[in-house]
Amino acid sequence: MKTLIATAAGSILLLIAVLVFAIWATMTDARQWAAFSTARQCKVTAHVRGDVFNTITPGPNGQVTIGVAVTPDKTGYTCDDGVTYFR
Question: Which end of the chain is more exposed for a tag (fewer CB within 10 A), N or C?
Answer without folding.
Answer: N
